[in-house]
Specification:
CATH architecture of the largest domain: 2-Layer Sandwich
Strand order of the largest sheet: 2-3-1-5-4-9-10-11
Order of helices and strands: HHHHEHEEHEEEHEEHEEEHH
Helix content: 40-55%
Shape: globular
């Protein structure tokens, strides 16, 4: 009983700290503004903007409701805990409340610019031929399963398959609450060590794949990112990704090159070229934003050098399947021997540790 009372006292203190971080009164004011926008007659004149407003409105309502419910639950627990004996049901309620509080505490870390945006994730196979392409495909499956477990939607935007197996490169959108905030720490080099299934001698093989993560942003989000028409080199080709006959037979796929920087983006998921142009432009805009952000950070540190969204030298995590099993994050030192679960999308421990590590 004494331990439970200590937990209850801790819950109250943590909740008050959480309220200060999440600023519920400001969120309610923002909610009122969004509800006013959603009630405008011309809301759907811009379908993408309408969808963004309604999604943000839904997410905000959910967060405010969770905070209010949590506050009421903690108040009830405090009242019931004044009794001499704490029932098993109350103990269970305390555990559930602690879990929800921890989840909202994690959300409080996601307060950086664009953390609330959808995420654009790209995976590129490193050197190593089929082995590396298979590793890139394994990472693709891991992230898709992680998104599925969180209830997020995913859509493949660009896909270049490997010659024999796996994928050379892939870009997909992750649509969901705080998707970019949760996934941005996954950017960097991921290293795999295993017995190669593509080698008759079952030799130990080391493979690398590069993960890039960007927020899905529009011109409204980034009015200062200028993309002049004369700086854009457009290319059109037939899609190689899975899709309908129209997607496969007509040159609907789009690639755009930003001449001043050499940065490239492409999309081949939609049936119509204009839709793919829009996706490719938004992806390019996000890359240019990341370029500028990185330059500013390097200037503050007195550093110079060529920008890369996620450097091959920036190894963040190692996945060892042979001669032992271990996944270890090289930044936070978090590790686990349950490699099967990790590769099946159970990467919450790594993502949460990175969020807390960055906020220290």
């Amino acid at each position: 009983m004494e331990g439970s009372k200590i937990n209850i006292s801790d819950l109250s203190a943590r909740f008050e700290k959480l309220k200060k971080a999440l600023k519920p009164e400001e969120k309610k004011q923002k909610l009122d503004a969004l509800e006013a926008e959603s009630a405008k007659p011309d809301l759907w004149s811009d379908p993408e903007e309408a969808k963004r407003i309604l999604q943000e409105l839904s997410d905000l309502k959910k967060e405010i409701a969770q905070l209010e419910d949590l506050e009421g639950t903690i108040s009830t627990i405090e009242g019931l805990s004044s009794q001499d004996a704490i029932s098993p049901d109350l103990e269970k309620e305390i555990r559930a409340t602690e879990k929800l509080l921890a989840e909202l505490e994690l959300v409080s870390f996601l307060s950086d610019e664009y953390d609330d945006k959808n995420a654009l994730v790209s995976i590129h196979a490193g050197q190593g031929g089929t082995e590396a392409m298979d590793w890139a495909n394994m990472l693709l499956r891991m992230y898709l399963r992680y998104a599925e477990r969180r209830g997020w939607k995913t859509q493949t935007l660009d896909y270049t398959p490997g010659e024999e197996a796996g994928v050379k490169s892939v870009t997909f959108r992750v649509e969901g609450s705080l998707a970019y905030g949760y996934l941005k720490g996954e950017a960097g080099t991921h290293r795999l060590v295993r017995q190669s299934p593509f080698n008759a001698d079952k030799l130990r093989q080391t493979s690398f794949a590069l993960v890039e993560v960007l927020p899905e942003v529009t011109a409204v989000d980034l009015p200062d990112i200028e993309m002049k028409d004369e700086d854009l080199d457009w290319q059109f080709f037939r899609a190689s990704s899975q899709g309908g006959q129209n997607v496969q037979k007509v040159s609907t796929a789009v690639r755009v090159i930003h001449r001043p920087t050499g940065i490239t983006s492409s999309s081949q998921s939609e049936r119509f070229q204009e839709q793919n142009r829009k996706i490719a432009l938004n992806l390019l805009r996000a890359k240019l934003w990341m370029l500028e952000k990185t330059r500013q950070e390097e200037t503050k540190k007195g550093l110079k050098g060529e920008y890369r969204p996620a450097s091959w030298g920036n190894q963040i995590r190692s996945y060892v399947l042979h001669p032992y099993k271990m996944v270890k994050d090289l930044r936070t030192e978090v590790e686990t021997s349950n490699t099967e679960a990790v590769l099946a999308g159970e990467i919450d421990e790594f993502i949460e540790a990175e969020l807390k590590f960055v906020k220290k």
